[in-house]
Amino acid sequence: MKKYVSLLKRTKLFSGVGDDDILSMLNCLNATVREYSKGEYAFRQGEYIRNLMILAAGRLHIQEEDYWGNLNILNEIRPGEMFGEAYIVPNSGPLMDDVIAIEESVVLFFDMERILTVCPSACPFHTRLVKNIFYTISDKNKSLVQKLSYMSQRSTREKLLSYLSDEAKRQNSSSFSIPFNRQQLADFLSVDRSAMSNELCKLRDEGMLDFHKNDFTLYEG
Amino acid sequence: MKKYVSLLKRTKLFSGVGDDDILSMLNCLNATVREYSKGEYAFRQGEYIRNLMILAAGRLHIQEEDYWGNLNILNEIRPGEMFGEAYIVPNSGPLMDDVIAIEESVVLFFDMERILTVCPSACPFHTRLVKNIFYTISDKNKSLVQKLSYMSQRSTREKLLSYLSDEAKRQNSSSFSIPFNRQQLADFLSVDRSAMSNELCKLRDEGMLDFHKNDFTLYEG
DNA sequence: TCTTTTTCGTTGCAAAAACAACATACTTAT
DNA sequence: ATAAGTATGTTGTTTTTGCAACGAAAAAGA
Fold first, then answer.
1. Is B148 part of a structural domain of the chain?
2. Are residue A39 and residue A74 in the same domain, yes or no?
3. Mutate to test the interface with B, among A63, A87, A95, A131 (most CBs of B within 10 A)
């Protein structure tokens, strides 16, 4: 387990916890390791999950196949990222996705029941851990809600406006940079790149905004 | 505070906690109450939130106005529901939405720091509370991810198929009922009702599924 | 510097969705 | 039972999007 400490201390879950404490917590949380070879399924749709996982190495895809067999990649998990946190809830039902290792991967398993059943005497950093998990999930929640608010707009134009408007708010300025190139932005908003590019230029021509590469400026009506 | 106990025991947050324990926990969590008149803002975009809230009575809308002044209602909060849980994270930045009372409303405030800083000696149900919050957020998270996976489909047809396919999985049967009428389903998937109705009928004519009102059946290819 | 690759805007076309309007079936209230 | 209201399906028109293809600009590499 020792060799994972340096990775874990950089994760959100163990942020602010010292090396020694991480080690004792790994024990406290009943941590176990499993390796997956490329192409192997870590979990399959229909299984029940009872652990919180952190990917230590490799790369995972969370994907689902619909009733008619169409594949859809929902998320890519990279080293240090937590997953499975949404399936810990009792009676949350079986996993609806597949989790597949697209590279040789190493996964750490934590006993979820032990995480939430606090043991302050034995493990002084337990409270910190609970907070960290809580914060991580809250953060994820927030970004999901935001993304949903972009995606629920009907047109490409409205999606763009709500996203850009939000970024302006977030960065507290009508001039700001976005972390996407055009293709990535289109993928993020689930629209066609060329149609989006077209719409952006229309908005520019209408005087609602201006941009140079990833730098945008919004103008008042 | 006593008069809120019967409401609180029915919330997810205090599920499994007895009346007396709820009362002592309200004290432990520094609970406070505030009333809002119809049309009054509980929070405004740009404010910082440091509490977890439960709506005791009335109705709230979480809404946002974009840079150009267009209003968008993101969520409706009903009595017993928790909100603000995503803004507790330190450095999570200011609130991006407005929270407005659309009816005379009563809101309970809980000190978030006290929730996560567990005090097992004084308050035996604290662990239970932490679990409940965790479960609530996880649940919310899960449904957000699911909805996002429907919404990220490009066409109405694909949105329908991914949603219906998921419901079949969830209810573990190719025959199942959905909790929406057509208009609600269209709103949920952010598509036009008549176009969706049209697409449903096409899918039926193609032999992929069948439906009577809210009861659906999916057929193998 | 020159070449290669990637990104971005632009266009035309086909497909799909939004919209509006209406007919029918179904519910609810009286 | 009847009338009013609501939900759903249907159709035609307009608008938007997706798609494919291409050239210019920018970035990355040799």
1. no
2. yes
3. A131
